[in-house]
Fold MFS transporter.
Amino acid sequence: MQVSDVFRFKNREIRALHLTWIAFFITFYVWFNMAPLASSILKSVDWLTKDDLRLFAIANVALTIPARILVGMALDKWGPRRVFSVLMITMAIPTFVFAFGDTREQLFISRLVMSSVGASFVVGIHMTALWFKPRDIGFAEGFYAGWGNFGSAAAALTIPTVALTMYGGDDGWRYAIATSGAIMGLYGIFYWFAITDGPTKDTHKKPRKATALEVSSYRDLGLLVLFTVPMIGILSILVWRIQGIGYIDTLTASICYTAIVVVVVYQVWQVLRVNLPTLKKGVPKDDRYPFSSVAALNTTYFANFGAELAVVSMLPLFFQETWGLTPVTAGIIASSFAFVNLFARPMGGLVSDRFGNRRFVMLSYMFGIGLGFVLMGLLDSTWPLIIAIAITIACSFFVQGAEGATFGIIPSIKRRVTGQIAGMAGAYGNVGAVFYLFIFMYVTPSQFFFIIATGAFISWAVCFLWLREPQGGFDDEYVISSVDEAIADEARLRRETEADLAVIFAGSEKVALADKGSGLTVTARFKDIDDLRTALARLGNGSAKSAPAE
């Protein structure tokens, strides 16, 4: 795939790419619409403090973690078109609640629920993987993520103008946030009708079980359990912070901690329930995949996207205090970290496509991140400002490129469970953000950069030991196993059976075939007893004719 191909709007896959990155852009615009309006929010109400807004900032990334896990499961079951549309429409509701809330509890809860919109990233990753071939997936995913991620920078640049100029007054921020939510909801409706899950009906491959990620060995099962715990357990940091500010008492905090433990135990039980029977039976050799690669990419996204979310939140103040800049100037300089997304992330995917070795590209980017943050940790007021800006942009280049390289690998690991793999890796990006933002409360900016650099080097070591070059990562088509074919055959047989049932129960209002426990249940609804008796008579006479599969 060439860079110029993104202008070939007549191609269906290019249209799908543009429709999807725009959806992602809008959701990220909404997700980050609070920080640029922080001062306006504080001025318009006298019952909020800076500590409240800092808490809202952590809440803004908290539920994204479990949301990305749940969305990953939903993707594999229902496909990205439905999931993306429903996510945008439903998340417009807490956006309106935040816009017009009149207590800090309302703002906190709505912001917490609204953080789920950050799971949109995973949806678009899966949609893009359905439309593009393995050899082109790196650039396509990077372009989608880079331009969509720019929504956060666009919010910082435009939403204050909308609030202050277009609406004005003390409540201008409320109408600006509400407007962004309304646009997201409307685009969600449009997206439902504007796109399909891939170029053909059978492009979307469903897993055997969508409740937990499938693995191929007992070692991988242990590793999956190990990586499952932090995705929910990290929320205990948010509970601790909420209690510290006084939003909840000790009893409520204890209930929240207990709930987190229950969810972790339940998630681990689901992992065991889904995988133990399959592992006992034995996984066919051609259906196995290395979960160690997924684990390695979890650490990369923790170290790159997690670092990006954390650094973006503290960088303006770092420049302002270190070099004595005005808030506006510091904000403009700090925004360069997000602006790099426009070209660095697509380039990371493109390099991954062109170099011919996705593992080496991933290792190179992670090492570059480590060096970049080491240099940022050395910055102080004695450094020329122009050099500091150059180092910041260079570091951002490696951070965004590593994000593109991460999702240049994920779609080729295991086609059938791409949604769940992407959901897990994406969740670890937010785990990293919550962890780093928590650490930042207790360290200086220089120490903070060194800690992030250490995380990048640890991820590099994990990738060196665990990450494998994906099978068929540069082929024209994704690798399909015997289990994939069996699932496809089962789906085809199911459609044929449903067609036969429609003939048998002709005259019924609805015929449904559903999985219930270990068996199947057939449901038919009739207008009256005469229609039912007619259908039973046909069934007794064996008059059903096989209908062609659709």
The radius of gyration is 25 Å. The first helix runs from residue 12 to 31. Confidence is low (pLDDT under 50) at residues 543-550. The chain has 22 helices and two strands.
